[in-house]
Amino acid sequence: MKSLYTARQGQFVAFIHHYTTLHGRPPAEAEMAHFFKVTPPSAHLMILTLERRGLITRTPGEARSIRLKLPSEQLPPLNGTAASASIQPPVRQAKGQQPTDTEAAMLRLGKVQLDDLFAHNGRHPLDDSEFIPLLDTLIESFARAGLSALRIKELRRHTGELYHRFCQEAEPESTFEANVELMISHLPGPRRTRLQQQAG
């Protein structure tokens, strides 16, 4: 029996499924390009190919309109995951233990999303009082999807490093600790208190 898709096409449909499951909306083509480390035109050509093969539907010109036509049982595992194509809560791990394949893919997706948010904010700046809670909401969505506390801490550290680089552009002498403290100060009261206790 002929396969419904090539290995590469399967990775794209698996990514679309994972992303949509995690975020409640389909990915943008730019996010697929970033995740697969391809150019935006290559990602667009893949979307056109998937549509032509009947694997997805989309509305041309409408952002995030991609819909999978395959049931999740017919999707391959996303490269780097041994679990089924649906996001399953990973097994909780001891401190320092290596992440499961699913958790590693979720962590990578989280970092891609954070990088994209910082890049977007560089082009269309928001006030930190709006931007920082947005970052926190993204990180919390990964916690709700089952990413372990240790990997959430990695996402928060990655966010701190990105914010520190952003702050150093304005104030080169600023320290990582001071910038992370500044970032936390922009969160709402209960979230700020909890993160300050975790950091301290």
How would you characterize the overall build of this protein?
The chain has about 200 residues and is mainly α. The protein has 2 domains: about 5-75, Arc Repressor Mutant, subunit A; about 100-200, no CATH class. The protein is about 60% helix and about 0% strand. It has 8 helices and 2 strands, in the order H-H-H-E-E-H-H-H-H-H. It has helices at about 5-25, 30-35, 40-50, 100-125, 130-145, 150-170, 175-185, 190-200, and strands at about 55, 65-70. The chain has a two-stranded antiparallel sheet with strand order 1-2. It is elongated. Mean pLDDT is about 80; it is low at about 80-95.
Short descriptors:
200 residues, 8 helices, mainly alpha, Arc Repressor Mutant, subunit A, 2 domains
Q: Trace the largest sheet across and list its strands.
A: 1-2
Indicate the percent of residues in helices: 55-70%
| Average pLDDT for all residues | 81
Instruction: Please write the string of helix (H) and strand (E) elements.
Output: HHHEEHHHHH
Strand content: under 5%
Low-confidence stretches: 81-96
What sort of overall outline do the alpha carbons produce when their principal axes are compared?
elongated
Could you tell me the radius of gyration in angstroms?
A: 18 Å
Give the terminus-to-terminus CA distance.
59 Å
For this structure, the quaternary state is single chain
Structural class computed from helices and strand pairing: mainly alpha
Main beta sheet strand tally, sense and closure: 2 strands, antiparallel
* Total DSSP helices: 8
